[in-house]
Amino acid sequence: MGLDIRIPLGLVFLITGVIMSLYGMVTRHSSIYEKSMGVNLNLIWGSLMLAFGAVMFLIGRRQRWQDNPVTPRPWERDDVEKKSSRSGH
Q: Is residue 54 part of a domain?
C-alpha cells in the first residue's frame, strides 16, 4: 500500500510542535505562565510534539522493509520459506 499513516501523522505533530515551541520561546518571560506556576508548557509540550512528529515521520519514510517480494519482512520470512518448501523450490 502506498500511504503510511505515520507520514501525515508525523507532519501534523511536527507542524503543531514547531508552532507551539516558537510561541513558547517568544512568550518565555510573559505573565501568561503565572497560572501554571511559571512553567512554560507551550515550550515543553511543543518540544515533545516536535520530537514525536519527527520520529513518526522518519519511521514512515524509511525504505528498509517496503513491499518487496524478493526480500520479505523478518516476520514474514517463515511464511515464505514454508511456501517455497511446499512448492519444491
A: yes
| Within-domain flag for 77 | yes
Condensed to tens digits (0 to 9), the pLDDT of residues 16-60 reads: 999 999 999 999 888 888 888 989 999 999 999 999 999 999 988
Instruction: Report the number of distinct structural domains present in the chain.
Output: 1
Long-range residue pairs from 16-22, CB within 8 A, at least 24 positions apart, any chain: 16/46, 16/49, 16/53, 17/46, 17/47, 17/48, 17/49, 17/50, 17/51, 17/52, 17/53, 18/46, 18/50, 19/46, 20/45, 20/46, 20/49, 21/46, 21/47, 21/50, 22/46
70: pLDDT strictly greater than 80: no
Domain that holds residue 58: 6-87
